[in-house]
Amino acid sequence: MNLETVWRVEDGRRLASTVWRAGRGHRMISSAMLGGGIGPAGWVLNAQVPGAYARTDPVAHLAELAAAAGLEGPGVGMLTAASVARTVRRDGEGVRVSATVGLRVPTWAAAPAGTPDPELAPLEGDGTPAWRPGTINIVVAVPVGMSDAALVNAVVTATEAKTQALLEAGFPCTGTASDAICVAAATGGTPEVFAGPRSTWGARIARTVHAAVRAGALDYAARLEARG
Fold this sequence. Notes:
By secondary structure, the chain is of the alpha+beta class. The chain is 26% helix and 29% strand. It contains 3 helices and 10 strands; from the N terminus they run βββββαββββαβα. The strands form 2 sheets. It has a 6-stranded mixed sheet. A hairpin with a 2-residue loop joins strand 1 and strand 2. The relative contact order is 0.18.
């Protein structure tokens, strides 16, 4: 996964994006707004936006950013307010992972009905520093084919590994309310039909995602401590 970091100026801020030009020969599953679902895709864009991001057309915005980066054809586009320049990369046993980890509002997946959403709280004026962004975006690449069911299973496995890493790093949460993920599998050959945490490739995905997210969460915690 050869990531390029590209920069742009938006709303007076210099913001980073990572671009993976995967090329042909990949099928991806993603929860991203642009290119989400399951299907062939040739690139992944993870773009940083300002913490007070207020555009109501994020899909069109991602399409603009993709075009500016020269990305054509089907691909996956994700947004995050976390520092994309601090993207964590980990490789393990053929699995490659990149993760941007922001934990401004760590949360549990299951919350009581009617509970106010802290993600919607103002970034400024409520005692919360605006530099503390949220969202964990994860991109996973494997060099083997996967059936649709295995791709779904891989997302579950990666999410479980993410949560384990966050808990071990001292964040009592399952993630944030705006996390996104993309798993890219090579095409060709007999596809894997399992990707659970005890399967060959699922176990490798779990270990590599865990390493990336844990490193990102510890880095975020260190920055919180340094800033007081």
